[in-house]
Design brief:
Elements (H helix, E strand, L loop, with lengths): L1 H16 L2 E6 L3 E4 L6 E10 L11 E7 L2 E12 L2 E14 L2 E5 L3 H4 L2 H7 L16 H17 L3 E5 L3 E3 L3 E8 L6 E11 L2 E14 L2 H11 L1 H25 L1
Parallel strand pairs: 2-12, 7-8
Antiparallel strand pairs: 1-3, 3-10, 4-7, 4-11, 5-6, 9-10, 11-12
Length: 250
């Protein structure tokens, strides 16, 4: 009984010492209007003890910003008779449309691979949920191809050392959202890490929404898909005809 009471007391004391994260973001709502060229989010906050004092110097911070998930099909290109054609493909059920991780130090220096995989701390540990059965090597190849493609488009990135910690209590990081970001709710999850273990986490949300003319067009396209498609084709034909007439006059 004494051993049990001692264990309970030890666990209670350990839990009481765990830090508390107080996260915030510079914008909780981002409006996508005509001419939107992207924006920069400032993610900041404090890491405190339960008593409200600074938690100390033994903590690293990692911040993961994720966009809405979507189903994605990745196709592999092969050259056949001098022509590039679609070959094998793989489907992923829930790939994030945007993913960025910022950390105070390189991820490999603050957590092991297992912990990084559990919390998806870094591009190599991103869980993409493939659909159907596929050879593990093939699955890894297609997943790496998807991550590389999204990274080249600026939609996936990893910034090690981008989180700045001040006075052993305040932290901040800047993450850029490019103009091609998908609308929806984004989650910014902050992790406090000590001695290779995640000891605290907190989540903030950011809504990316279309406004103005873009919102009206998107709503009309959703409600009247057929007419929107016909209108788009008609506009394309008209613009082609006008361009042809202009070139004929030159």
């Amino acid at each position: 009984m004494r051993a049990l009471l001692a264990l309970v007391a030890l666990l209670t004391l350990t839990a009481a010492r765990e830090p508390i994260l107080v996260p915030e973001v510079s914008q909780h709502e981002i409006e996508v209007r005509q001419g939107f060229t992207g924006t920069e989010l400032l993610l900041f906050g404090a890491i405190l003890t339960p008593e409200g004092t600074r938690a100390g110097p033994d903590y690293d911070i990692a911040i993961v910003l994720k966009g809405p998930t979507e189903s994605i099909r990745v196709r592999e290109k092969q050259k056949v008779a001098g022509v590039w054609v679609n070959a094998a493909s793989s489907d992923f059920r829930s790939a994030p449309s945007f993913y960025a991780v910022a950390s105070s130090r390189p991820i490999g220096q603050i957590v092991d691979d297992k912990t990084a995989a559990i919390y998806e701390l870094g591009l190599p540990w991103l869980q993409l949920s493939p659909i159907g059965s596929i050879d593990p090597q093939e699955q890894s190849r297609f997943a790496s191809g998807l991550v590389d493609l999204m990274a080249r488009e600026g939609l996936y990135n990893q910034q090690e050392g981008a989180v700045k910690v001040s006075g052993q209590v305040l932290y901040q990081a800047r993450i850029t959202l490019p103009s091609r970001v998908q609308t929806g709710t984004y989650t910014a999850e902050t992790f406090a890490i000590a001695h290779g273990r995640v000891v605290a986490s907190a989540t903030s949300r950011v809504d990316v929404r279309k406004q103005g003319f873009e919102l009206a067009v998107a709503d009309y396209a959703q409600r009247n898909g057929l007419f929107y498609g016909l209108f788009a084709v008609a506009i394309s034909v008209l613009m082609g005809w006008i361009a042809g007439r202009l070139f004929a006059l030159v």
